[in-house]
């Protein structure tokens, strides 16, 4: 889709970074806010056109991109008289960059197809900083021909752009990915606190653990806060982490039964949100475990 008109809904932390990258790469955008306006105002200052509804975004666009926190938000923007589907142009491609429930994604795919378009799930791996630099991983799924048409635009956004299979496959893999990530993040947060309680220096613990096969990017994200006081290397909120693990639990229950491993991460994240920590970043779960175990 050379010269494709792009619409974008949902300019939070990640959405704003994606829009900034698209504009940097020379794309013209029509944008609409979802929850916050800060990212919209910045995009408009760089030349984007703002509209109010999903229908208006779709009517102006060959590619409609959504980056929202929940399946419910995606569904609300897609459906109804002011939704994306109502204004969809024939042959348009809709891309959901968020982390959504696969069953919701497949249902929306059928509705978009009836309206003459194609719906792709393309969840993202990486942080807003990675998105700003065009270094994210994109886990694309859906109709292969539609994916091929939009891949040049996706290549402007990501370092690794995958087509993984039928619609819903991207969101399935992303939920498994985020389940694993949150198990690791919460285990590492507790490990630093356990070091405190047993008289071990946090940096020493990290140096030993990271010298072996446990070394990972997620370990480094948590260490950046636990040792260096920087929570923003992983700019992903506790409430969003809870949502993703919750979605994974629902998917697992439908597929094969209750997840054993997800329960600990889900319980800790749920408790942290109940304590009012939901807007904090995941690395700050270190403080949750510290308070829980008595600092």
Descriptive report:
The structure is a single chain. The protein is an alpha/beta fold. It is built from 14 helices and nine strands. The chain has a six-stranded parallel beta sheet with strand order 3-2-1-4-5-6. Helix 1 (13-24) links the parallel strand 1 (6-9) and strand 2. The model has no long low-confidence stretch (mean pLDDT 96).
What can be said about this structure in brief?
The chain has helices at about 15-25, 40-45, 55-60, 70-80, 85, 100-115, 130, 145-155, 170-195, 200-210, 215-225, 240-255, 260-275, 285-290, and strands at about 5-10, 30, 50, 65, 95, 120, 125, 135-140, 160-165.
Descriptive labels:
alpha/beta; 12% strand; single chain
Topology:
Blueprint (H helix, E strand, L loop, with lengths): L5 E4 L3 H12 L4 E4 L5 H8 L3 E2 L3 H6 L3 E4 L4 H8 L5 H4 L5 E4 L5 H13 L3 E4 L2 E2 L2 H5 L3 E5 L3 H14 E6 L5 H29 L4 H9 L6 H10 L11 H18 L6 H13 L10 H8 L3
Parallel strand pairs: 1-2, 1-4, 2-3, 4-5, 5-6, 8-9
Antiparallel strand pairs: 7-8
Helix pairs in contact: 1-2, 9-11, 9-12, 9-13, 9-14, 12-13
């Amino acid at each position: 889709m050379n010269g494709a008109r792009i619409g974008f809904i949902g300019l939070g932390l990640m959405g704003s970074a994606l829009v900034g990258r698209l504009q940097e790469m020379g794309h013209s955008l029509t944008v609409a806010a979802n929850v916050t306006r800060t990212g919209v105002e910045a995009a408009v200052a760089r030349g984007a056109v703002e509209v109010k509804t999903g229908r208006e975004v779709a009517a102006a666009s060959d590619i409609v991109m959504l980056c929202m926190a929940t399946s419910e938000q995606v569904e609300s923007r897609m459906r109804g008289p002011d939704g994306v589907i109502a204004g969809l142009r024939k042959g348009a491609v809709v891309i959901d960059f968020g982390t959504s429930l696969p069953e919701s994604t497949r249902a929306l795919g059928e509705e978009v197809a009836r309206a003459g378009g194609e719906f792709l799930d393309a969840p993202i791996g990486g942080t807003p900083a990675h998105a700003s630099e065009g270094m994210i991983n994109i886990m694309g799924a859906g109709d292969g021909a539609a994916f091929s048409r939009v891949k040049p635009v996706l290549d402007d956004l990501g370092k690794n752009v995958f087509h993984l299979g039928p619609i819903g496959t991207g969101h399935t893999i992303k939920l498994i990915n985020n389940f694993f990530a949150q198990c690791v993040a919460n285990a590492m947060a507790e490990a630093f606190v356990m070091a405190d309680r047993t008289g071990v220096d946090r940096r020493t613990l990290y140096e030993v653990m990271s010298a072996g096969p446990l070394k990972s990017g997620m370990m480094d994200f948590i260490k950046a806060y636990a040792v260096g006081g920087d929570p923003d290397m992983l700019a992903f909120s506790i409430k969003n982490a809870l949502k993703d693990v919750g979605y994974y639990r629902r998917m697992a229950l439908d597929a094969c039964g209750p997840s054993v491993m997800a329960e600990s991460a889900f319980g800790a994240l749920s408790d942290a949100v109940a304590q009012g920590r939901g807007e904090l970043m995941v690395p700050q779960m270190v403080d949750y475990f510290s308070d829980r175990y008595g600092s």
